[in-house]
Amino acid sequence: MIAELTREETEEFLREQVVGRIGCHADGQTYVVPVIYAYDDGYLYVATIEGRKTRMLRANPEVCFEVDRYDGPAGWRSAIAWGTYEELAGEEAERAIAILAERFGRTGETRRHGPESGLRTVCFRIRVEELTGRAVERSA
Amino acid sequence: MIAELTREETEEFLREQVVGRIGCHADGQTYVVPVIYAYDDGYLYVATIEGRKTRMLRANPEVCFEVDRYDGPAGWRSAIAWGTYEELAGEEAERAIAILAERFGRTGETRRHGPESGLRTVCFRIRVEELTGRAVERSA
Predict the structure, then answer these.
(1) CATH code for the domain in which residue A67 is found
(2) I want to staple A126 with a disulfide (CB 3.0 to 4.6 A). Which of A44, A59, A122, B111 is the partner?
(3) Distance between first and last Cα of chain A
(4) Minimal CA–CA distance to B135: which of B8, B7, B10?
C-alpha cells in the first residue's frame, strides 16, 4: 500500500530527519553522498568541507535530495526533492550555521574547521523546486 | 576523524545493511531512490516494480549506490559504489529472488506481484565496479 504524502506531511518528515543524500551528476558520473542537513522553509542547509561533492555541485548545481526512514517489514517513508545548489558566503553562511546549530547544537555537524585543519568549510543550501513524499505501509 | 574502510570492511557493511539508495541520471535529471537490497559477491540485488527508476536505469545503466548508518554525534559509516545496472530474467531473476528471500524471508521485499496487481516485478542487480567506504568517529 503506497500513499503519496501531502506537501505538509513531506515537509514535516524533512524537518524530523537528520541524514539526507545528495545526488549530483557531472562529467558523466553520478554521485550520491550522505549529509547532515536542516530543512527550513523550502531550503535544505548543509555545512561540509571542500571535496568531490563541492566540485561536482559547482559543475552542475541541479541536484536530487533524498531522505528515508525504514521501519522494517511494516513499511517506510521517503521524501525526494529536486532543486538547485547555492553556495553561501558571508552573512548567508552565518545564517546557515545558525540554522544547523539550532537543529543540532554545537556538535561536529556544525563545527567550523579552523584554518589549521587545512579543510575549508563550505556552507550551502539546496533550493527545493519539486518535492515528493511517499509512505509504504504493509499489513502482515 | 575520517577513516577509509578496507574493501573487506566495506563489503561487510554492505552485507549488514538493508536499505540503499540508487543514484541514476537520464535526460538531464538525477534521481536518488531508496531500495531494499542484498549484497552478494560483488553484486547488489534488488526486486522492484516498473516505474520511473527502471525507465531511467535502462536509459543509463551507469549508477551510484549509497548505504549509510548514522550513529548520532558519535559518527557514521557509509559505503558508496559505482557500477552497472543489469536487468535479470528467467533463472537469473529467480536466483535474485532467492538471494533476497534468504536475506529477508518471504516478506513484502521479495514478494512477486501477481499479474492481477497490474505491477510488473523487475529484478535487477548492480555489478559493483568501484567501491569506497568511510567511517567517521568523533570524540566528544
Answers:
(1) 2.30.110.10
(2) A44
(3) 12
(4) B10
Nearest CA in chain A to B104: A73
Cut 0.80: pTM above it: yes
Task: Give the residue among A20, A13, A4 at the shortest CA–CA distance from A134.
Answer: A4
Quick check: B19 contacting A, CB < 8 Å? yes
ipTM: 0.91
Residues 52-91 of A with CB under 8 A from B: 62-66, 68, 70, 73, 76, 78, 80, 82
| Chain B residues whose beta carbon lies within 8 Å of the beta carbon of residue A74 | none
| Residues A98, A23 contacting (CB under 8 angstroms) | no
Locate A40 and state its grid cell. Answer: 527550513
Q: Contact, B80 vs B65, CB < 8 A?
A: yes
SS3 B74: helix
How far B135 CA lies from chain A's nearest CA (Å)? 12
pLDDT digits (tens, 9 = 90+) for A100-115: 999 987 654 445 555 5
Domain that holds residue B57: 2-137
Instruction: Work out how many domains chain A is built from and give that number.
Output: 1
Rounded Cα distance, B82 and B127, in Å: 8
